Hints:
The structure holds two protein chains of two kinds. Chain A has nine helices and 22 strands. In chain A, strand 18 (269-276) and strand 19 form a beta hairpin. In chain A, 38% of the residues are buried. In chain A, helix 1 packs across helix 3. Chain A is α+β, with helices and mostly antiparallel strands. Chain B has helices spanning 2-6, 11-34, 39-54, 65-84, 95-121, 129-151, and one strand spanning 90-91. Chain B is mainly alpha-helical. The chains are: A alpha+beta, B mainly alpha. Chains A and B meet through helix 1, helix 2, helix 3, strand 5 and strand 7 of A and helix 3, helix 4, strand 1, helix 5 and helix 6 of B.
Amino acid sequence: MTRTVSPKLGAYAGLAALGLIAAIALRRPELVAVTAPFPLVLAVGLAFSREPDLRAQVALDRERVLEDDEVVLTLTLRAAEPLERVEVFVRLPPALVPVDGANPFALRLGTSEATRELRLHCGRWGGYALGEAHLRIRDRFGLFVHEQQLTELRPLRVYPRPEEIRRVLPPLETQVYSGNQVSRGKGEGIEFADIRPFATGDRVRRINWRVSARRGELFVNERHPERNTDVIIFLDSFTEARASQRGTLELAVRAAASLAALYLQRKDRVGLVSFGGVLSWLLPATGLVQRYRILDSVIGTEIVFSYAWKDADVIPVGTLPPQALILALTPLLDERAIATLLDLRARGFDLAVIEVSPLPFAAAAEDEAEAIGHRLWQLRRETLRSRYQRLGVPVVEWRDGDPLAVALEEVGAFRRQAGRVRA
Amino acid sequence: MAWTLLAIGSPVVLAIAAVAALPGVVALALALVSGWPAPIPLAVVSLGASYAVSLHGHGAIDGRAPLVGAGLVLVAELAYWSLERRTAVGEEPGLHLRRALSILATTLGAAGVAAILLAATSVPLGGSVTWDAFGLAAAAGAVAVLARLSTRS
C-alpha cells in the first residue's frame, strides 16, 4: 500500500505558518484567530490518521459464459477500522461493460464486511483475467491518500455464441471408427447398400429371403457402415477486415466454434489449425474435452502482424490426417493463407472454403477513383474464387448477418453438382 | 469577505483590500475550472490578506475574526471537495451528506476554537520582546508538531 500526502496537507501547514508569522509581525491577534482553523484541522486530522488495513477479494459467479451473457463480479471488502471513503476501480477489458453498478465507485466501510457487485455484459468472445482493482482510501479530513492495488486475477472465458446450424458439411471420405456419417464403403451398418450372392461366412440374419426365393439361390444384404470423419477447421488469422467493434475474425471464430461443436456431436474427430502470424494447432480428437480445447484455443485467436512467409510445410505432421475435410474460414485477404489453401488442395485434401466476406467492413467509396478501385478489388476476388472452383474447391461467401447454414448448404450443393475433382 | 469589506470606512483601505482580494477570487476560479489544487492556498492567502488590510486603523480587536477564519477554512474545504468530485465516481447514498456534515462540523469547530483563541488574546499580559519570542517559539512549535504528525508512518 502506498501513502500519498494530499495537496491539502501542505497547503494548510503553509497557511498556518504564514498566518502565525503574519500575526506576530503585524501584531494583530485577529490573524491568529483567522489562521487557527487550518492547524486545527491538521492537528485533528493527523492525530486520527491511521494506516488502513483493508483486504479485498474478487469473485466471479461463473468462469465460462457465452457472448452477450452477463457475469457478476463480486468485490468483498473488509477493513480492520472504519474507513471514511474507499474508492474502487476495477480494471475491465473493453469487451466487458458494466450494466449494473458503477465503476469506479466510492463507499464508506465499517468494520463489517462489505460486498459490491458489478454486473458485466460480455460483448465479445475472448479469454480474460478479471480482478485487477485499484483501491484508494481517503481519511476523514482528506489529508492522506492510501492506494492499494489488488491483483487477484480470476479467469473468465467468454465463448462465442453458436450459429444456428442443423446440418454440417459431410466429408467425402470417412475414417475407420464408428460415427454418424454413412460411409460409401460396405460393411456392418444400418443403411441398405446392395445385395450379393451368399458367401461362406455370411451371417444368416443378413440373408434377403425375398430375393433369395425369387432367384432360387441365397442372397444377402449389404449395408453402408456408419463411420466417423476427420474435420480440420482452418482459421485464417493473418489479417482481418474490421469496422468498429466487428470484423471478419469475430465471424470466423464464431463459425469455427459452432462447426467444431456440431462435428463433435456427430462423434467426428475435429482438429484446429489457426494459421496466421502465430501458428497454433490442435490434433484431431473427439469428445467434450476436445470441444473445450477448441473453444479455449479459438477465443485466444488474435491477429498478430508478421512479414514472415508461411506455407503448408509449417503445419506439423499429423495435424492434417489423410482423407480429412479441411474447412477453411478465411477472408481471403492474405496471400500466404490463399497460397497455403491452394497447396493443400494440390496435395489432395478435401477442402472447402467459407469466405468470411470483408466487403461489409470495407469503407464506402468516396469518389469515382475509389469506386473503380473497389470494383477492381471485387473482380480480383471473383478471379480468385474461380481459381479455387476450377480446382474443385467450393468457395462460398459468407457475410455478416447471413446464416452460416446457408453458406454450408451452398458448399454442399457445389460438391453435389461438381463431384469430386482431384487436382 | 464582502461583509468585512463593506464595514471598512476608508475608501483607500477599501480599495486596497478589494485589490488584495481580487487575486484570491481569480485563483479560486482557476483552481475550480482547471482542477489544479495549487491555487487554492493562494486564494486563501489573498482573501486573508484582504482581511488583514481591512484591519488597518481598527484599534480594538475585531470580533469577526473567528467567522472570517471559519469562512476561509470553509472555502478551502469546499474547493478541495469540489476538485475531488471532478473524478466520475459512483457514490453510495449518504456519502455526500456525511462529507457535507463533516465540513460543517469542521467549520463550526474552527469558528469555536478561533473564538476561544481571540478571547484568550484579549487577556492583558502587557507587551514585551519576551512575549514576542514566546509567541514565535509557540508558532514554530505548533508547526513542528504538525510536521512530526504528518511524517508519522
